[in-house]
Amino acid sequence: MTKKELRTKYKNLRKELTFDEIMNESLMIANHCIDLPIWEKTYFHLFLPIEKHKEINTEFILQILSGRDKEIVISKSNFEELSMAHYLLTDNTKIKVNDYGIPEPIDGLEVPTNKIEVVFVPLLAYDKKGNRVGYGKGFYDKFLNECKPDTIKIGLSYFDPEESIDDVLETDIKLNYCITPFGVIQF
Fold it and tell me: What is the Cα–Cα distance from 66 to 58, expressed in whole angstroms?
Protein backbone atom coordinates (compact mmCIF):
# COMPACT_ATOMS: atom_id res chain seq x y z
CA MET A 1 0.00 0.00 0.00
CA THR A 2 1.08 3.60 -0.53
CA LYS A 3 1.58 6.09 2.30
CA LYS A 4 -1.66 7.84 1.32
CA GLU A 5 -3.63 4.57 1.47
CA LEU A 6 -2.04 3.66 4.80
CA ARG A 7 -2.88 7.07 6.28
CA THR A 8 -6.54 6.55 5.40
CA LYS A 9 -6.60 2.97 6.70
CA TYR A 10 -4.97 3.75 10.06
CA LYS A 11 -6.86 6.98 10.69
CA ASN A 12 -10.06 4.93 10.30
CA LEU A 13 -8.77 2.15 12.57
CA ARG A 14 -7.90 4.71 15.24
CA LYS A 15 -11.37 6.29 15.04
CA GLU A 16 -12.80 2.96 16.21
CA LEU A 17 -10.70 2.90 19.40
CA THR A 18 -12.52 3.64 22.66
CA PHE A 19 -11.08 5.77 25.44
CA ASP A 20 -10.53 2.66 27.57
CA GLU A 21 -8.72 0.88 24.73
CA ILE A 22 -6.45 3.90 24.21
CA MET A 23 -5.59 4.06 27.92
CA ASN A 24 -5.04 0.31 28.34
CA GLU A 25 -2.97 -0.07 25.18
CA SER A 26 -0.94 3.07 25.95
CA LEU A 27 -0.12 1.61 29.38
CA MET A 28 0.91 -1.72 27.79
CA ILE A 29 3.17 0.17 25.35
CA ALA A 30 4.77 2.11 28.22
CA ASN A 31 5.40 -1.12 30.14
CA HIS A 32 7.26 -2.55 27.13
CA CYS A 33 9.57 0.52 27.09
CA ILE A 34 11.25 -0.86 30.18
CA ASP A 35 12.61 -3.77 28.11
CA LEU A 36 14.54 -1.51 25.70
CA PRO A 37 18.33 -1.07 25.95
CA ILE A 38 18.07 2.73 26.25
CA TRP A 39 18.30 3.48 29.94
CA GLU A 40 21.94 4.58 30.01
CA LYS A 41 20.91 7.53 27.78
CA THR A 42 20.06 10.96 29.25
CA TYR A 43 18.08 13.06 26.73
CA PHE A 44 14.74 11.60 25.62
CA HIS A 45 12.44 13.33 23.13
CA LEU A 46 8.76 12.56 23.70
CA PHE A 47 5.73 13.71 21.74
CA LEU A 48 2.62 14.87 23.58
CA PRO A 49 -0.45 13.24 22.02
CA ILE A 50 -3.02 14.91 19.81
CA GLU A 51 -6.14 13.64 21.57
CA LYS A 52 -8.53 14.28 18.65
CA HIS A 53 -6.36 11.92 16.52
CA LYS A 54 -6.41 9.26 19.27
CA GLU A 55 -2.62 9.13 19.43
CA ILE A 56 -0.87 6.94 22.00
CA ASN A 57 -1.17 8.52 25.43
CA THR A 58 2.49 9.16 26.30
CA GLU A 59 1.75 10.20 29.90
CA PHE A 60 2.74 6.72 31.09
CA ILE A 61 6.11 6.91 29.30
CA LEU A 62 6.57 10.41 30.71
CA GLN A 63 6.13 9.00 34.22
CA ILE A 64 8.72 6.27 33.57
CA LEU A 65 11.23 8.80 32.23
CA SER A 66 10.63 11.13 35.19
CA GLY A 67 10.99 8.26 37.62
CA ARG A 68 14.38 7.44 36.10
CA ASP A 69 15.51 11.10 36.28
CA LYS A 70 15.85 11.47 32.51
CA GLU A 71 15.97 14.81 30.71
CA ILE A 72 12.67 14.99 28.80
CA VAL A 73 12.48 17.09 25.65
CA ILE A 74 9.24 18.16 23.95
CA SER A 75 8.70 20.13 20.75
CA LYS A 76 6.98 23.20 19.45
CA SER A 77 5.97 23.16 15.77
CA ASN A 78 6.56 25.92 13.26
CA PHE A 79 3.98 25.34 10.51
CA GLU A 80 5.43 28.01 8.20
CA GLU A 81 8.82 26.27 8.04
CA LEU A 82 7.51 22.75 8.76
CA SER A 83 10.09 22.48 11.53
CA MET A 84 10.23 21.95 15.28
CA ALA A 85 12.10 23.59 18.15
CA HIS A 86 12.85 21.39 21.16
CA TYR A 87 12.51 22.37 24.81
CA LEU A 88 13.42 20.80 28.12
CA LEU A 89 10.30 19.78 30.03
CA THR A 90 10.52 21.09 33.60
CA ASP A 91 8.09 21.67 36.46
CA ASN A 92 7.80 25.27 35.24
CA THR A 93 7.01 24.44 31.60
CA LYS A 94 3.67 25.84 30.52
CA ILE A 95 1.87 23.73 27.90
CA LYS A 96 -0.69 25.13 25.46
CA VAL A 97 -2.64 23.22 22.80
CA ASN A 98 -2.05 24.85 19.40
CA ASP A 99 -4.62 25.31 16.60
CA TYR A 100 -3.83 21.79 15.29
CA GLY A 101 -4.52 20.14 18.64
CA ILE A 102 -0.83 19.62 19.49
CA PRO A 103 0.14 20.25 23.14
CA GLU A 104 3.30 22.38 23.05
CA PRO A 105 5.56 24.31 25.42
CA ILE A 106 4.98 28.06 25.32
CA ASP A 107 8.72 28.67 25.86
CA GLY A 108 11.59 27.38 27.93
CA LEU A 109 15.16 26.14 27.70
CA GLU A 110 15.84 25.13 24.09
CA VAL A 111 17.71 21.85 23.55
CA PRO A 112 19.82 21.36 20.40
CA THR A 113 18.98 18.25 18.37
CA ASN A 114 22.53 16.92 18.73
CA LYS A 115 21.90 16.42 22.47
CA ILE A 116 18.84 14.20 21.91
CA GLU A 117 19.74 10.52 22.24
CA VAL A 118 16.34 8.78 22.07
CA VAL A 119 13.24 9.88 20.13
CA PHE A 120 9.78 8.40 20.65
CA VAL A 121 8.22 8.88 17.22
CA PRO A 122 4.49 9.26 16.53
CA LEU A 123 3.23 7.41 13.48
CA LEU A 124 0.12 6.19 11.72
CA ALA A 125 1.64 3.06 10.17
CA TYR A 126 4.97 1.29 9.74
CA ASP A 127 6.34 -1.77 7.98
CA LYS A 128 8.49 -4.77 8.86
CA LYS A 129 11.63 -2.93 7.70
CA GLY A 130 11.15 0.01 10.10
CA ASN A 131 9.77 2.50 7.58
CA ARG A 132 7.09 4.77 9.01
CA VAL A 133 4.13 6.78 7.79
CA GLY A 134 3.21 9.98 9.62
CA TYR A 135 0.65 12.63 8.79
CA GLY A 136 2.59 13.71 5.70
CA LYS A 137 3.85 17.17 6.65
CA GLY A 138 7.46 16.00 7.13
CA PHE A 139 8.05 17.45 10.63
CA TYR A 140 9.60 14.26 11.99
CA ASP A 141 11.48 13.43 8.78
CA LYS A 142 13.19 16.82 9.00
CA PHE A 143 13.80 16.48 12.76
CA LEU A 144 15.19 12.93 12.54
CA ASN A 145 17.50 14.00 9.69
CA GLU A 146 18.93 16.67 12.03
CA CYS A 147 19.60 14.14 14.82
CA LYS A 148 22.92 12.33 15.23
CA PRO A 149 23.09 9.07 13.23
CA ASP A 150 23.20 7.00 16.44
CA THR A 151 20.04 8.58 17.90
CA ILE A 152 17.64 5.76 18.79
CA LYS A 153 14.29 6.12 17.03
CA ILE A 154 11.34 4.33 18.63
CA GLY A 155 7.91 4.28 17.00
CA LEU A 156 4.76 3.78 19.07
CA SER A 157 1.77 2.01 17.52
CA TYR A 158 -1.46 0.33 18.53
CA PHE A 159 -1.13 -1.96 15.50
CA ASP A 160 1.12 -4.60 13.95
CA PRO A 161 3.41 -3.66 11.03
CA GLU A 162 2.42 -3.75 7.39
CA GLU A 163 4.43 -6.07 5.16
CA SER A 164 5.89 -3.09 3.27
CA ILE A 165 5.23 0.50 2.25
CA ASP A 166 5.23 0.92 -1.53
CA ASP A 167 6.49 4.50 -1.85
CA VAL A 168 9.36 4.75 0.63
CA LEU A 169 11.87 7.47 -0.25
CA GLU A 170 15.66 7.32 0.07
CA THR A 171 15.44 10.27 2.48
CA ASP A 172 12.97 8.54 4.85
CA ILE A 173 14.57 7.74 8.20
CA LYS A 174 13.91 4.23 9.52
CA LEU A 175 12.97 3.34 13.07
CA ASN A 176 15.24 1.24 15.29
CA TYR A 177 12.27 -0.13 17.25
CA CYS A 178 8.51 -0.01 17.36
CA ILE A 179 6.55 -0.67 20.53
CA THR A 180 3.02 -2.04 20.34
CA PRO A 181 0.73 -3.30 23.12
CA PHE A 182 2.01 -6.78 22.23
CA GLY A 183 5.75 -6.14 22.58
CA VAL A 184 8.86 -4.59 21.06
CA ILE A 185 9.82 -5.02 17.40
CA GLN A 186 13.47 -4.40 16.52
CA PHE A 187 14.53 -3.46 12.99
Answer: 12
